[in-house]
Design goal:
Number of strands: 8
Strand order of the largest sheet: 5-4-3-6-7-8
Order of helices and strands: HHEEHHEHEHEHEHHEHHE
Strand content: 5-15%
Radius of gyration: 18 Å
Helix content: 25-40%
Shape: globular
Largest sheet: 6 strands, parallel
Distance between the termini: 28 Å
Number of helices: 11
Length: about 260
């Protein structure tokens, strides 16, 4: 992937991206049921409750934070990259110590890295005050030091506000970049309006710029009531409709654990 982005290499883009193919028949060869969804970023997992790994129904504690249910079509995403592409991740709700040593966002970053997607910029927005010394010395793995931007303030859902990352960060990139957004701030009054701004996409920017969107939508769901408690708002049906419409809009939306 580094060779692809540097340009001028002997290996062609096709050869480099071919190396990310996990099955001779592509990603569909791994999932012969053909129940995957096709998006502008390739194939992704189907949208189903319980809105994370179905294995929580077997062992809730062991699989609650698992990302094993997510499907990423890295070969497809590779073919969209250009030598000038910037790889960017915006993390809204970036408490790196919230889940102890098992941090889903780090798991996701390392999954991308396995396939050569190493982010140039990671913007971490977090409302809870954290000592930057602890963040950088203890919580953040060393490999992300060069690319991590720690922004210790809450995000705003107000359109055009400088603390609304959709405005102040996302709109500064373009469709040639590879942009990932994660939204999980446990406050429906902020995160739902942000998700709806992506869906409405007034200026037609988000559907062109955002390649992957991960959102923990805190709706009323019995399996997760113990974890979500007072943050729950809305129904499972509304959530399925939101994610389905985001995918139709061109944004590969995933449930986040």
């Amino acid at each position: 992937m580094d060779m692809l982005r540097r340009g001028g290499v002997e290996q062609s883009t096709q050869q480099i991206c071919d190396s990310l193919r996990l099955h001779p028949d592509g990603i569909n060869g791994i999932f012969p049921s053909k129940q995957l969804s096709l998006t502008s970023s390739g194939y992704v997992e189907p949208i189903l409750p319980p809105m994370r790994s179905h294995k929580i129904c077997e062992n809730h504690g062991q699989h609650l934070m698992s990302l094993a249910y997510l499907v990423h079509d890295f070969e497809f995403m590779c073919r969209k990259l250009k030598p000038t592409s910037r790889l960017v991740l915006v993390d809204m709700g970036a408490a790196l110590d919230f889940h102890g040593t098992n941090q889903p966002i780090v798991t996701l970053l390392r999954q991308y890295a396995k396939f050569g997607f190493v982010f140039d910029h990671i913007y971490g927005f977090e409302i809870n005050a954290k000592d930057p010394k602890v963040v950088y010395e203890t919580s953040l793995p060393e490999e992300y030091i060069p690319s991590y931007h720690w922004i210790n303030v809450g995000v705003s859902a107000k359109e055009g506000d400088k603390l609304n990352p959709l405005h102040s960060v996302i709109e500064k990139f373009n469709e040639d970049d590879f942009v990932v957004v994660k939204l999980d701030i446990d406050t429906s009054s902020v995160e739902v309006p942000l998700a709806l701004q992506l869906l409405e996409d007034k200026d037609g920017v988000y559907s062109k710029v955002i390649d992957q969107f991960y959102f923990e939508h805190h709706v009323h769901l019995g399996e997760l009531a113990g974890s979500w408690s007072s943050s729950m708002n809305g129904t499972v049906g509304e959530s399925l409709e939101l994610f389905s419409n985001l995918r139709k809009k061109g944004i590969a939306a995933h449930f986040w654990p």
